[in-house]
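Cast an eye over this sequence plus tokens and explain the fold to me:
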Amino acid sequence: MSGPTVEQLELLRELHDRGSLAAVAAALHKTPSAVSQQLKAAQRELGVPLVVRAGRGLVLTDAGVALARSAVGVATALAEAEASWQRFQGAATGTVRLACFHSAAELLVPGLLDRLRSRPGLVLETADEDVAQDDFAALAADYDVVVAHRSDDVAAPARDGLVVVPLLREPMDVALPADHPLAGREHVTPADVIGEDWIAPPPEFPIDRVLSAIAARAGAPVRVVRRTTHLPLTEILVARGHGIALLPRHTTREHAPAGLVLLPLRDLRAGRLVEALLRPDRYARRAVREVVDALVAEAAAVAP
């Protein structure tokens, strides 16, 4: 009886991370039937049950979970070996896929591309992914680097098995129209703004979680009149007097429209943490590591 192959380990890892045969099949560009046949063949060759049926789906057995976790170490070792070989060959080469939520992309991607211009062997592919803060970790299965954000007043969501690289902390300021009675102040408190009409992103986004903290501190509910994830739209609506909002300081100051004022929020820690999430084997790749290093340098430049 032989041990597991690298391909079998990777298949079990994908099932562990993605949770369903359909998701694994889509990621591997195979049919669910083909993936199912691969699992059955692996069980026959290894002589132990690797999956059991649960409802309409499959879950890994203890043996399957153990092999899925060992797949991470195997893939990381292979990536480290490739990185060592590339160091002998010269400059890093390859394609790196980066997912980034919209406002961080505005803040970081232009400068990141500037920094990578001197590395012609690196090809950076970017994708827009703006999801609830607890859903960013799952994206690491599909991208080499995932730029995620989370509110800094709550514990980090579960991100087992991922490398987390801190990029920056961005304060959240209260955005007001320039003719608002509070616009001339140096700062505002939750009690000052709790009674206003608010424009906010959907629930479970970092900004909305800070808004919930404002409500808790002020002891009154927040009145949200409009929800959108598109921050430039929020800026325009605030400038035209259709409500107030929480907006990220560094991003907004880059292109704030006329008629909008940003004020720091006092008596409450209001901000978001921006981080890069990666699978360990992706982080071991030399091309990916160079992109992450450039991303860290750009974050330090735009938000010292």
